[in-house]
Amino acid sequence: MQHQIITDLHNRYTAKQYDKTKKISAADMDVIKEAIRLSASSINSQPWKFVVLESDEAKLRFHETFANKYQMNQRHATEASHIVLFAHNPFYTKDDYRKVVDAEVSSGHLAAENYDNMLNGAYGFAESNTDENGFNGHWTKAQTYIALGNTLHVLARLNIASTSMEGVDSELIGSLFNVELDGYVCELALAMGYHLEGQDYNYGLPKARLAAEDIITVL
After folding, report:
1. What confidence tens digit (pLDDT) does each residue in 148-158 have?
2. In whole angstroms, what is the distance from residue 204 CA to residue 14 CA?
């Protein structure tokens, strides 16, 4: 199939080793950050926070979070150009959603007279995913994967390599980045940069995906 989107996705792969001398340009980072901000989420909840690590100090702090486990990902912390911590709010409240509805009205997306209907109606879905203790982290965490998928395609379009990492120590990240996270929880991080020539064994290999007829049903 000849289409730029398909070409992008064929060229996208999980980087295994980064060239630490190559940095993502400020212009490309502006695109990436705006693309992350524009990601979709259930009821437009946006129950997330994204911490971008670009300084050596910040990346070294992230490197230290691998002290106890997931050392296979540790090298990416300092070799990749940038790291993004994808964090979610585990106790997303109606007041949190109120900020979203305020933005919907101020942007012109939502008519002011529909404010209460939106706030009370749409938030009911969040409530259905909230337990008796106010915890809805399973639902809010799921939203970060929507943002991740969006970001991966943007990176492919920009010819920037990436590595998604669920193999991170959430507790240590929460401790070493407690100020930046401010109660949000990071269980997913994304390394971004450029592969190390001749050392990234995953680079350029053909895609290995199940056949379309095995996974797609058209009715």
Report:
1. 999 999 999 99
2. 10
